[in-house]
Amino acid sequence: MEDKTQFRNFYGRVRGKTLRNSQKTYLADDLGAVQLRGVSRDENPERAKIDPKAIFGTGKPLWLEVGFGGGEHLVHMAARYPQIDIIGCEPFVNGVAMLLGKLRAAGVENLRLYPGDVRDVFDVLPDQVFAKAFLNYPDPWPKARHHKRRFVNQGYLTELARTMQPGAEFRIASDIPDYIRQSREEVPQAGFDRINDSPTAWDDWFSTRYEQKALREGRVPHYLTYRRAAA
Ligand SMILES: C[S@@+](CC[C@H](N)C(=O)[O-])C[C@H]1O[C@@H](n2cnc3c(N)ncnc32)[C@H](O)[C@@H]1O
């Protein structure tokens, strides 16, 4: 059967400023050890499902962060919760390099990353693998004609819902009122119950680069918490 997913569009940036030499070194020396295997089309052209237990070999609860940016929240969660394993996805190579630098300093073992589109990860995972998922400051796509590119659309959300365990928590942070509006509309349709909708962050929140930028520019963060409904 033809693999239609190979033609899917990614509209975000994959490269930014020229990488510093130290960042090039992180990518060359460190990425291999923490990269999630069996996800890219080169490694898995058949798109065969991978065994999530084989990723870490621990059997611990598995969490996901979509679009980790510079990785500050991802590393914070990995360090704070050694009893879980966490996967982060990020196609922006500068962000991946930043995360690798932070990983050297943090020395956490329970984190793997996929330097690409989260949809590639969804493709190869079986149902009900994630016990928690984070979507922090997703790309806002402000123009109405681009709203369909937002993560909070059924295309992304039904795959997220499929890969989440019943009762698993899904957190969204955003400073864009229209993104919060669309999340309130779309996320429940994909099979999530709203638990909290608040201007106050979670107790274990770690403010990200994009949140810091939003605060500097006078925008107001908002936090949504959902729970995957029982199947
Ligand atoms: C506005 S930035 C926020 C980064 C970070 N979460 C923060 O709060 O600082 C959104 C990030 O999501 C990433 N992203 C967009 N689409 C994605 C996708 N399909 N899969 C994984 N990451 C994605 C972008 O590359 C970008 O780095």
UniProtKB/TrEMBL annotation:
* Sequence positions that bind S-adenosyl-L-methionine: 65, 90, 117, 139
- A Pfam family annotated for this chain is Methyltransf_4
| PROSITE patterns, per the entry | SAM_MT_TRMB (PS51625)
Q: Does the keyword Nucleotide-binding apply?
A: no
- Give the main EC class: transferase
Which keywords does this chain's UniProt record carry?
A: Methyltransferase, S-adenosyl-L-methionine, Transferase, tRNA processing
Q: Which Gene3D superfamilies match?
A: Vaccinia Virus protein VP39
GO cellular component annotations of the record: tRNA methyltransferase complex
- The superkingdom listed in its UniProt entry is Bacteria
Report which reactions are catalysed by this protein. guanosine(46) in tRNA + S-adenosyl-L-methionine = N(7)-methylguanosine(46) in tRNA + S-adenosyl-L-homocysteine
Query: Could you tell me which InterPro entries the record lists for this protein?
Result: SAM-dependent_MTases_sf, tRNA_(Gua-N-7)_MeTrfase_Trmb, tRNA_methyltr_TrmB_bact
Q: Where does substrate bind?
A: 143, 175, 208-211
Pathway it works in:
tRNA modification; N(7)-methylguanine-tRNA biosynthesis
A Gene Ontology molecular function term for this protein is: tRNA (guanine(46)-N7)-methyltransferase activity
Q: What EC number(s) does its UniProt record assign? A: 2.1.1.33
Q: What does this protein do?
A: Catalyzes the formation of N(7)-methylguanine at position 46 (m7G46) in tRNA.
Q: Which PANTHER family match?
A: 3-DEOXY-D-MANNO-OCTULOSONIC-ACID TRANSFERASE/TRNA GUANINE-N 7 - -METHYLTRANSFERASE, PENTACOTRIPEPTIDE-REPEAT REGION OF PRORP DOMAIN-CONTAINING PROTEIN
Family note: Belongs to the class I-like SAM-binding methyltransferase superfamily. TrmB family.
Q: What is this protein called?
A: tRNA (guanine-N(7)-)-methyltransferase
- Name the species this protein comes from: Neogemmobacter tilapiae
Starting at the broadest rank, the lineage of the source organism is: Bacteria, Pseudomonadati, Pseudomonadota, Alphaproteobacteria, Rhodobacterales
Q: Corresponding gene?
A: trmB
